[in-house]
Amino acid sequence: MVQAGTRHDFVKTKEYRGPSVPSPLTNNPRAGQWTNAMSHNMIADYKRFLMTDGEGIRCSLYVSGCPFHCEGCYNSSIWDFQAGHEYNERLEAQIMDDLAQSFVQGITFLGGEPLLNTGVLLPLARKIRERFGHTKDIWCWTGYTWEELMRDGETQDKLDLLHEIDILVDGRYIKTLHDSLLQFRGSRNQRILDVQESFRQGKPVVWAKLHDQERFIPEIYGKERAAGEGDAS
Questions:
Q1: 3-state DSSP call for residue 156?
Q2: How many domains, the chain?
Q3: Is 117:111 a contact under the CB 8 Å cutoff?
Q4: Cis link prior to 112 (omega < 30° from 0)?
Q5: SS3 for 36?
Q6: Tens of pLDDT, residues 43-75
Q7: Is residue 26 included in any domain, yes or no?
Q8: Sheet order of strands, 167-170 included
Q9: N or C, where is the chain less crowded by C-beta within 10 Å?
Q10: Which keywords belong to this entry (predicted)?
Q11: CATH code (residue 100)
């Protein structure tokens, strides 16, 4: 396992790996280097009925463990694959009951690194599809880029989970590319991808509903409030 505080580019070739990869601010794995054998099936958190982790009202499952170690990561406390508590049947039953609520649009997998926790997430995703079909969508965040996941030599379980996912937010967090105006992501290299359309076209396809802000919302509200107060006087 990569130790915290170090940054390594494990790939010495110039193969294309997606936007802003490799980066000196993260670890950059070669194809198949990291596997779900690193996982201890640990969950850092489960949150119900949020509107921040994707479209609509969602449930969010945060898995433990991430070796990308992006500098400035806001979830660095769960880089450890042994953080949190072990995934269990009780939690799974809670997730399924929550997803059954009519107002819940779907579930989001975050971390940590979901694609290194396929031992938990792949069976869960398949159970969700079996029970709900595509009436509930599945979003996933990953430090991998689409191009890296499509490289020869990447592990099959990652691709198997991708085939169950609707929307993928891909790429490392690069703090020098941070942009607070982005929708559902932290840095400009990251993309929101329509996974199934990307498979059909054989290339990364950006989510059709992408809508980044042009100005910071509190700034907009502040100007509108100031204008209203001026009119009142």
A1: helix
A2: 1
A3: yes
A4: yes
A5: helix
A6: 999 999 999 999 999 999 999 999 999 999 989
A7: no
A8: 85-86, 42-50, 58-63, 106-110, 137-141, 167-170, 191-194
A9: C
A10: 4Fe-4S, Iron, Iron-sulfur, Metal-binding, S-adenosyl-L-methionine
A11: 3.20.20
